[in-house]
Amino acid sequence: MPLLDELRAMAVFATVVRCGSFAAAARELGLTRAVVSHHVGALEARLGVPLAQRSTRSFSLTPAGEAFRVHCERLLDEAHDGLRGMELLRAEPRGEVRLTCSHHFGNKRILPALLAFRRRYPAIRLHIAMGDANIDLVQQGVDLAVRAGPLPDSNLYARPLVHEATMLCASPAYVRRFGMPASVEELRQHRWVVYPPSQRSLQVRDAGRPVDVPVHGDVVTDSAVSRLAFVLAGEGIARLPAYDAAAPLAAGELVRVLPEVATAPLDIFLVHSRRIGPSARLLRDFLLDTVSENAAA
Fold first, then answer.
1. φ, ψ for residue 99, nearest 5 deg
2. DSSP letter assigned to residue 153
């Protein structure tokens, strides 16, 4: 089958699945039942497997059909969303988007982009929920979420948003009190500001070799804002993202600990469900362009 015929057949198959029968899909598409059946049959011939069991009274997907329908529905959704997005561009975009992100990263990276988005698209209403808890997007009716990775497997789409460098830091007061670690081995004896509370160790790379360093300290927090405050106050060492460390390092309020030792970057993702509306898609694309560009600046 030529590619255009394959895409057409996939769209027809997705419509059959959503409508629940060949007859209903034919009415939805404005085609005859025979034409709908022809498209699905041609698709089955192309794939070499049956996609559905059908009779005059029943319709059900085969295991292969169940697996393949996900791709076909995605194709159909993307086409519909693309058309709706272009309709938005013809007029002033409007609508409502719900977004959630953490307080700290949200204020550092997301809020400036949202302000710029509002200036460009003033008719789109934004509902911003800032909190560190991972909520159920579908259950809470949230369109977009900003989350740190790696992410567990799920039915959500995760788009890479920004790749933040990290580094080990302490305050000059901490170094005066406890000394500067001279090696990765000495890190094991030092105090840490533990974030998140579940952290038990930190992997670093010393001369290209991965080393797990136990993490322990008298301060344990679930807040990135608190982590920075306690590090600045001399309570311990922490791995900080560059957006937290840059200004205090330049002001002499922080010092790098073992700068030759590499720490894993912080990967931030923009997450959304399988289907999002045109306004959410517009904000998603704006954030993907703007946030990563500002982070690299």
1. -135, 145
2. P
pLDDT in tens, 148-178: 876 665 678 888 998 889 999 999 999 999 9
Instruction: Quick: pLDDT tens for 73-116.
Output: 888 888 888 787 776 666 678 889 999 998 888 988 899 999 99
Q: Which tokens hold the place of 171? A: 């305050």
Look at strands 59-61 and 52-54 and give their pairing: antiparallel
| E strand segments, the chain | 52-54, 59-61, 95-101, 124-130, 144-148, 157-164, 166-170, 193-194, 201-206, 209-214, 219-220, 238-241, 255-256, 262-263, 266-272
Query: Rounded to an integer, what distance in angstroms lies between the CA atom of residue 249 and that of residue 231?
Result: 12
Reported residue count of the chain is 297
The tally of CA atoms less than 13 A away on the side-chain side of residue 76 is 18
